[in-house]
Amino acid sequence: MWLGLGLVALAVVLWLAGGSVKTFAPSLPKWSGWAELGAGLGQRWPSVIALFILYAAIFAVAAHFLGVRAGSFLGGFSVLFVLSIAIVVFSQWKVANQYNLEAPIVALVLGLIVGNTIHIPSWFGDALRTELALQDPGCSCGLTVCGSVVTSL
Q: What are the residues whose beta carbons fall under 8 Å from the beta carbon of 37, sequence distance 6 or more?
């Protein structure tokens, strides 16, 4: 509950200051060639970095309360964040769009393949804890945060 409330408070503070949460919500471009991809990503890197810093801070605090070491969590979270950006970039590719390979579908398939074929090291497993993404039905803060990642990228 506090995580979701904190995000709403951040949005209100940014709005009152004349800003927007769009700083933390990069919209990655659709692309069909490497030059087009490079130009689009080059313009959006500050927002991607801002999103990483915001989520790393929020989830590091949550991981601390779950008894996970911050260093271990942040290492795994960094890898997970880079993978999620790569998946979103892939899903924005013209060919992927033709086959409706949207980011959640690609992430699900990749997660199923990796999770069932490769041993996940413990330092990476800390970032994959379901408590950080799924909550009990009474509190959907984790789903709200994860949903904003999927829709904002």
A: 29, 31, 89
The pLDDT assigned to 1 comes to: 61
Fill in the amino acid letter for 105.
Answer: I
DSSP state at residue 31: B
pLDDT along the chain (153 residues), means of 10: 76 85 82 93 91 90 86 90 94 94 92 90 82 49 44 42
Tokens encoding 74: 């942040």
pLDDT at 147: 46
CA distance 74 to 26: 21
For residue 143, give both structure tokens.
């789903």
DSSP 126: G
3-state helix, strand, coil split of the chain in percent (to 5) is: 75, 0, 25
Which amino acid appears at position 13 of this protein?
A: V
Report which residue type is found at 59: F
